[in-house]
Amino acid sequence: MSNQHVLKLDIGGIPQDWLTPREAAELIAKDLMAWSLGEVIDVFHGGMNRSGNRTVIEVPSILAVQGSAQIHLPDIIPGVTHEKLFWRDRNMCAYCAQTFHPRDLQAEHIHPESRGGLWSWMNLVAACNTCNQIKKKNMTPEEAGMKLHYLPYVPSYWEDFILRSRNIKADQMDFLMASVPAHSRLRM
Q1: pTM of the shown model
Q2: Which secondary structure element, helix H or strand E, spans residue 63, and what is its range?
Q3: In the chain, how many domains are there?
Q4: Residue 63 forms beta bridges with which residues?
Q5: How does 15-51 read in b/e, with b if 16+ C-beta sit within 10 Å?
Q6: pLDDT value at position 2?
Q7: Which residue among 49, 56, 98, 128 sits deepest, i.e. has the most Cβ atoms within 10 Å of its Cβ?
Q8: Residue 21 falls within a domain, yes or no?
Q9: Residue 188 domain-assigned?
Q10: Is residue 149 part of a domain?
Q11: How confident is the model at residue 100 (pLDDT cuts 50, 70, 90)?
């Protein structure tokens, strides 16, 4: 079985979820697939059909299901996690501009949490321990005399699908990147 995930889309090509190959095979078997793209990432073999042939389900890397999502993309704000934040910020400390392994980074509140700062994309950046705990502490960047080397931003719906999965196949990445805004840090 493949360790890859299938990008599930609605019939209009709007991303809906990441599926395991088994979950995608179930949708195909239930005849819910509208169309597909990309290469085959897994093959499931079933029993014998009425004509004596063994059934085979080939699972593509991108699968569109029937029906369209009832969502308004501009209204969707992706949830913030440490992993997605660090990947958005390219594992770079916002204050010293050095790149770190994610385990050596912290989600840093630009406006300190203890002073009402929110856990939100626009108030969080990746920061190393030295910059966050030793230099900035419980101050704003201005109070600490520190400058941000990049500004925070809210990832688009499309960027969020990239930020959610580190194991993205090239054809899936090409599909998603086609709708990622030009200003996205993921394009750097």
Answers
A1: 0.81
A2: strand 54-65
A3: 2
A4: 8, 36
A5: bbebbbbeebbebbeeeebbebbbeebbebeeeeeee
A6: 55
A7: 128
A8: yes
A9: no
A10: no
A11: very high
Q: Which domain holds residue 108?
A: 79-144
Give the list of residues 6+ apart from residue 50 with CB closer than 8 angstroms, or none.
none
Percent of the chain with pLDDT over 90: 79
**Residue 11 pairs with which residues in a beta bridge?**
none
Whether residue 83 sits in one domain with residue 140: yes
Spatial separation of the C-alpha atoms in residues 48 and 150, rounded to whole Å:
59
Among 25, 20, 58, CA closest to 165: 20
Helix (H, G, I), strand (E, B) or coil at 116: coil
| Run of H or E residues at 64 | strand 54-65
Would the CA dihedral through 116, 81, 84, 24 be positive or negative? negative
* DSSP character string of 120-153: SGGGEEEEEHIIIIIIITTS-HHHHT---SS---
